[in-house]
Amino acid sequence: MLFGHHISHALFFRSKPVSESRKGTVFWMIGTALGNISGHKLPSNRQVLSCFLFNHLVLGKAKRESAELAIDGVLSFWQKARVPTRQPVKCWSKLEKLYEKYTTLKKNKGRAGDVQRRNKDFKSSLEDLFDIAHQNAPD
In which element (H, E) is residue 32 found? Predict the structure, then answer.
């Protein structure tokens, strides 16, 4: 207990500050993040990245472990839809590329010009489906 409040170890000692609301943690361009993927539709890039960021930055889990947790959540949705998926390793790679793009844009968020266009393009792509369908899966 610190100053009369319970503060989790991960929240108190995290290296990157993020703002917190009552319902979750807020990330730049992503919005409020929770540690799981929910809903009735196949997950979007935003939902998957949000789950990854929450596990990695708030809970302090390693990148690989955070990616595994996020991909496990995604795979459960795809399995319920009975759509064949790629191997988990390929899914992790896709998520890691999405995270790298996010961090690059975040580093340059204050710059003008072409960066603003890329930010806008990335933000609109967040609503796209996190597509992990096997290449031979029927449309």
Answer: strand 31-33
SS3 136: coil
Which two structure tokens, joined as six digits, stand for 64?
């690989």
Q: Are 67 and 96 in contact (CB under 8 A)?
A: yes
Q: Between vectors from CA 74 to CA 68 and to CA 76, what angle results, nearest 5°?
A: 105
State pLDDT tens for residues 12-44. 334 344 454 445 677 787 777 776 777 788 999
Report yes or no: 126 and 49 within 8 Å, Cβ to Cβ: yes
Contact 127, 103 (CB under 8 A): no
Question: Where exactly are the structural domains of the chain?
Answer: 9-125
In angstroms, the Cα distances linking 17 to 38, 58, 91, 103, 119 are 25, 9, 28, 14, 21
Q: What is the pTM of this model?
A: 0.74
Q: Which residues of 36-53 are buried (b: 16+ CB within 10 A; e: fewer)?
A: ebeeeebbbbbbbbbbbb
Q: How many CA atoms lie within 13 A of 109 on its CB side?
A: 9
Kind of pairing between the strands at 19-20 and 31-33: unpaired
d(CA 130, CA 45): 5
